[in-house]
Design brief:
It is a single chain. The protein is of the alpha+beta class. It has 15 helices and 13 strands. A hairpin with a 5-residue loop joins strand 2 and strand 3.
């Protein structure tokens, strides 16, 4: 153990005696380690932020869409085949999920389904009143939408069951609309009438609620808050009466806590399958948000790892630099090696001395690279608006890898020093 500490002391003394040369030698290690740490930190931070954003939509929620069926191949009497493949087919009203389907579904799985979230987009509009304005996107929603998106009220209330069933012209607006149109007075906004223009027709809506607007962490807006477009929510039936539509191309199921969402997604798809048995073009497809979060996390991790591996090539370049400087160091200290061997130092002691020196060079460079990489990674993550979370795993892996490089690239010079003939070494000038 004393020999080990002595070798470490000699290595540090050597670094101190040749500061500039040691720094240039470690530069490749520093760049490689800092690059890997920074990339892994940014990647992990973005993955965490995206996962949090998707989880906020409800990891137990299930999204049900219409999936196009593969086109069947047809053969003529002459033996010629045509069709097949996946030609794009646009869904029509007859293909959509109906209100009756959803009601039957909710009744069948009443213990498992807390609500259904459905939306009907009517397009963009601008609210205007005596020079005041607010940009909105008019969207019809079911009551389950507010549950699925954890909508928080700033003032007023949600739509009532009667308003939803009768398709009344009531609306919920964002805090930004209140700031633009009512000077930030939410109480004054409640009960007011706002007019929207949809398809060259004007519709009056009574404001019954104000919700808190939160910008998505996955989205980035470059416009001012005043010009930000927010949702202008109206009852789903009202939206369908305006658009003259009946069905839904997709919807979200809010499931009970503790339910296996992946298994229930399969159950949901199987429930709607009989409705589409005779539909030539479409079939129901259901997937859980939990599976989407997992897929997204795996994809981001794979991309981050791939980029980090490419950046890690700099570590190999740094390792070659370490080997080169160790060969130079051994040449300069040939007489020292000869003296030690003449005094009885075994080959293993000489070999260990220079391997430890190589490890120390890589370890010091690795520590500097870790500090620099964490600073760069956290700064980049903050600039991207992500929650900066340094990757502890990548830090430990990088530190271990830098030590491994010291052993790998230091062994050849160390072994060369150990095999020196002491008489020739003492004669070396």
């Amino acid at each position: 153990m004393m020999m080990f500490y002595e070798n470490v002391r000699l290595a540090l003394f050597s670094l101190k005696a040749n500061k500039m040369r040691a720094l240039l030698t470690m530069l490749g290690i520093i760049i490689g380690i800092s690059s890997v740490i920074a990339i892994m930190t940014v990647g992990q931070s973005l993955t965490y932020t995206m996962t949090e954003s998707m989880s906020a939509l409800g990891v137990n929620n299930i999204t049900v869409i219409l999936q196009q069926k593969p086109q069947e191949e047809e053969t003529t009497e002459e033996g010629m085949s045509f069709g097949g493949g996946m030609g794009r087919v646009m869904a029509e009203e007859k293909d959509y999920y109906t209100r009756e389907m959803l009601e039957n579904y909710c009744e069948t799985y009443a213990d498992s389904v807390l609500g259904i979230s459905v939306t009907e987009g009517l397009g963009q509009s601008k609210l205007q009143d005596k020079g005041l304005y607010a940009n909105v996107s008019v969207t019809g929603t079911s009551l389950g939408y507010f549950l699925a998106n954890d909508m928080k009220l700033q003032a007023g209330r949600y739509f009532s069951g009667t308003e939803m069933d009768e398709g009344r012209k009531v609306a919920m607006v964002s805090g930004i609309v209140v700031n633009n149109m009512f000077g930030g007075d939410a109480d004054r906004a409640l009960g007011s009438v706002l007019q929207v223009n949809l398809g060259d027709k004007y519709f009056d809506f009574v404001v019954v609620g104000v919700y808190e607007y939160e910008q998505s962490a996955m989205g980035m807006s470059f416009v001012s808050e005043k010009d930000t477009q927010t949702d202008f929510y109206i009852p789903l039936k009202t939206a369908q009466e305006i658009s003259h539509s009946q069905g839904f191309s997709q919807f979200t199921v809010i499931t009970a806590d503790g339910l296996d969402s992946d298994a229930f997604a399969d159950t949901t798809a199987n429930f709607f399958s009989p409705y589409y048995r005779n539909n030539r073009d479409f079939q129901p497809m259901a997937f859980s948000m939990a599976s989407m979060v997992e897929i997204m996390s795996d994809m981001m991790s794979t991309i981050t790892t791939a980029i980090a591996v490419i950046a890690g090539i700099a570590l190999l370049v740094g390792g070659i630099g370490v080997m080169n400087i160790m060969l130079v160091s051994i040449t300069e200290r040939t007489r020292e090696i000869g003296t030690r061997k003449a005094l009885g130092a075994p080959n293993s002691a000489i070999r260990m001395q220079f391997i430890i020196e190589s490890i120390v060079i890589c370890l010091v460079g690795g520590l500097i690279g870790i500090v620099l990489g964490v600073i760069l990674g956290m700064s980049a993550a903050n600039l991207l608006g992500a929650s900066a979370t340094p990757s502890v795993g990548s830090i430990l892996l990088s530190l271990g890898f830098s030590m491994a490089i010291g052993v790998f690239f230091g062994y050849y010079p160390a072994n060369k020093a150990a095999k020196m003939d002491p008489i020739e070494a003492l004669r070396y000038e």
